[in-house]
Amino acid sequence: MLVAAIDIGSNSVKLAVGDVDGQGHVRITQTDRFTLQIGRQVELDGALGSDVIGSVAHAVGAFATRARLAGARRIDVVGTSAAREATDGKALEDAVSAAAGVPMRCLSGEEEAHLVSRSIEASSGMPIHDAVMLDIGGGSTEIVRSQGGLVQRRVSMPIGAVRLTDRLELRGADALTAAQIDALDAAISEALDTIEPHARVDRAFGCGGIVTLAGRMVHFGMPPVGTGINGADRLLLERDDVMALREQLQHSTVEARMAAAGTTQARAEILPAGIALLDACMRHLQVEMLQVHEHGIRTGLLADIALR
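^ thats the sequence. predicted structure below, dont judge the formating
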């Protein structure tokens, strides 16, 4: 069955269309994104405002039309941390639902964490037994620990690449100063100190735009567009490489980050905070290597949509 998921994240609005078989295995056939960084507006004002809401609704409406033209029989539209925290979240839901022709819903942090494990299992086509799963978003970070094929713990932390960048005023900076790096480390440590370290596991998976960009930059230098042999899905990312990438980005100008990552200024500005968060999470969770899962929670959404 061909289905579609549209994810309104703190950094981007993302589309995934996929074919789901009778066992719930997902094959992604089409993806796209609009970078709107709505988390930045929520961090600054607490609300999105009518202009941002209109931009999100327009993006979602365009994606919903594309999904239907591609043959999707069902479409799910969800919002994550920025959408659920915005004081005008109801206005966003109403506008997006009207534009998409299907109801939008906001996911709780617990639901996001569930979808991390659901996505990786649906993508791999088998249960994930002893593993740590990590999803670094723009406004939140989810950590899932599975053992014996069962999820033992799900945690959602209200920190992400966009939120950290704006809270610590890192936008527009060239190389980060020593004081900015110290403040970044302190903010991440404060969040991670609330999480009891897991016993070391042999398997780890990472998803979200930051993890995907890290995988592409480490393996390809400049990230090509696409999946499979030309993308980041299922690449292995070692912590030593993440540490080196963190050092490089923190001491680079925005222009140099744009060139190194092959990305926009908006995404280049959040890279130092995002990669620092990835590095700290791997260290805290005793993860030396993780496998990149390129499509985030959308694979899990597609698998769940097909079961309805």
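The two ends are 12 Å apart (CA to CA).
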